[in-house]
Design brief:
This protein is α/β, with parallel strands linked by helices and 150 residues long. The chain has a single domain, classed as HUPs (Rossmann fold, 3-Layer(aba) Sandwich). Helices cover 31% and strands 19% of the residues. The protein is built from four helices and five strands; from the N terminus they run βαβαββαβα. Strands 3-2-1-4-5 form a five-stranded parallel beta sheet, sandwiched between helices. α2 links the parallel β2 and β3. The protein is globular, with a radius of gyration of 15 Å. The N and C termini lie far apart (43 Å).
């Protein structure tokens, strides 16, 4: 299997089971020696979002546990695209929610004469109540990071 350069992005607030599924898929697509760029969105207007430093630390802790840290780059991004438009990536891993942004990225890449990214879309990870696990639901105290009701 050819090693790939893969990108993902998000707020990654209160790293939860859905985030972990996205990250795991990105490293699976990258292959054993491929690289994954993880962009953490900085301009979130959502109240209660953890600081960049806390979100990055949670990501780093997870990557270390999984043995991925040496193949990852984590950087702040200031819009929904980050370096995905101009960067030398092969693929992007997104959720159902961010799939339209991946299509926009490929349109912008085409205009720059860059090859489109392979878009890998993973389904929402559902909580025990059948609704998607999300950071906003965790912040509201509806569910925990694993999707269990509170």
């Amino acid at each position: 299997m050819k090693e790939k350069s893969v990108c993902i992005g998000g707020t990654f607030d209160r790293l939860h089971r859905g985030h972990r599924a996205l990250i795991d898929k990105a490293f699976e697509v990258a292959g054993e020696k491929g690289r994954v760029f993880i962009g953490i969105v900085m301009n979130s207007k959502k109240n209660g979002v953890l600081s960049f430093e806390k979100r990055k630390k949670e990501l780093m802790d997870y990557l270390e546990r999984k043995g991925f840290v040496d193949r990852a780059t984590i950087q702040p991004i200031f819009d929904k695209y980050g370096p995905s438009i101009s960067g030398n990536f092969d693929a992007i891993v997104v959720s159902d929610e961010t799939f339209p942004a991946a299509e926009e990225i490929n349109e912008k890449r085409k205009k720059l004469g860059k090859k489109p990214l392979q878009i890998i879309c993973i389904p929402f990870v559902l909580s025990k109540d059948g609704k998607p696990i999300s950071s906003s639901r965790i912040r509201k105290g509806e569910i925990d990071r694993e999707g269990n009701p509170r």
